[in-house]
Design a protein that fits this description.
This protein has 313 residues and is an alpha+beta fold. The chain contains 6 helices and 12 strands. The strands form 3 sheets. It has a 4-stranded antiparallel sheet with strand order 1-2-3-4, with no helix packed on it. Strands 5-6-7-8 form a 4-stranded antiparallel sheet. Strands 9-10-11-12 form a 4-stranded antiparallel sheet.
């Protein structure tokens, strides 16, 4: 039996394709020409924010725009409207880190090409997962494809550093699978729900399986990450198998999990720690509520995942 996440993703990512086929059939039977794919940069190029990826201090976020622009053009990109229509994944885009106070593109994320727009349109079979350190000093970004991750990078905005983590993470997870499951040949791997804790502690869930055939395995992995230049070193601190009934953090409402993990973390703290956590949560709620409405669900999800990681570590 497929894990729920694989079933959900398979259905969700097929919907745009099914919808497209229906549109073609309708256009043929009615004699009405199908609408052409949206080209949002026909005219002056610009960029779209992923508002829910904003850093805790409000300084940085991730964005997308057309690929292949010259540095001069990219340095002065205007912002496209948030309700921009996107109805095709056959477009060349780039993802980059954006400096919010200075309104400028900082640098590209190599190999990333995820986009999203109006009414839930997004790159077919794609997703963008982001975690920030509490002090906004580092971020992890994952570009998800259908069965594998397109790219995984560790970002240090202050030095414009982008380090590729994909191979290191996959190799580390492969070692867990070889030890625990004996099922690694030809396995597909994806990572989700990342959190960065103090001291360069990285917590994330790893999904693995043989595409449609299975078997499938999911583990919650905790690493200590260090770097020698651009070369990452991952020390595995913990690997716990995720049971079927806990595979998702939540369905569509993240507030219950936010409260659950807040209470779990609070129960581990002394009186001084509980007071500090309460103040921290109040400040976070004010920050979340100051963001665009469309960003708040993703910010709540990120906070729930972070609190869970802190409660479990």
């Amino acid at each position: 039996m497929l894990p729920r996440r694989f079933l959900f993703d398979l259905i969700a990512r097929r919907l745009p394709l099914v919808f497209g086929v229906l549109c073609v059939v309708i256009s043929i039977t009615t004699g009405v020409a199908a609408e052409p794919a949206s080209r949002p940069w026909d005219g002056k190029p610009g960029y779209c924010r992923f508002s829910g990826t904003i850093s805790p201090d409000g300084t940085y976020l991730f964005a997308w725009g057309p690929a292949g622009l010259s540095p001069d053009v990219r340095a002065n990109l205007p912002e496209w409207p948030s309700d921009l229509e996107i109805n095709s994944d056959k477009i060349e885009v780039a993802n980059f880190l954006y400096d919010v106070p200075h309104k400028r593109v900082m640098f590209d994320l190599p190999g990333f090409d995820y986009f999203a727009g109006q009414a839930g349109w997004h790159k077919n079979r794609g997703a963008l997962h982001v975690a920030w350190a509490a002090d906004s000093s580092h971020a992890l970004a994952i570009s998800e494809e259908r069965w594998d991750d397109q790219g995984i990078v560790w970002i240090t905005p202050a030095t414009s550093s982008v380090v590729d983590l994909k191979d290191a993470l996959e190799n580390a997870y492969q070692r867990v699978l070889r030890l625990r499951e004996k099922e690694t040949r030809g396995v597909n791997i994806q990572f989700r729900e990342p959190a960065i804790l103090p001291g360069n502690i990285l917590v994330l869930d790893g999904d693995s399986g043989h595409m449609k055939q299975g078997p499938y395995f999911s583990y919650r992995l905790t690493f200590h990450i260090t770097f020698s230049g651009k070369h990452p070193h991952l020390e595995l601190l913990k690997a716990r198998k995720i049971l079927e009934n806990e595979e998702h953090t939540t369905g569509t409402d993240f507030d219950p999990d936010l409260n659950t993990y807040y209470k779990k973390l609070r129960a581990r703290l002394d009186e001084k720690g509980r007071a500090a956590l309460k103040k921290e949560e109040e400040e976070w709620i004010r920050f979340r509520d100051s963001q665009p409405e469309g960003a708040r669900e993703q910010l709540t999800e990120r906070r729930a995942v972070e609190l869970r990681a802190r409660a479990e570590n």
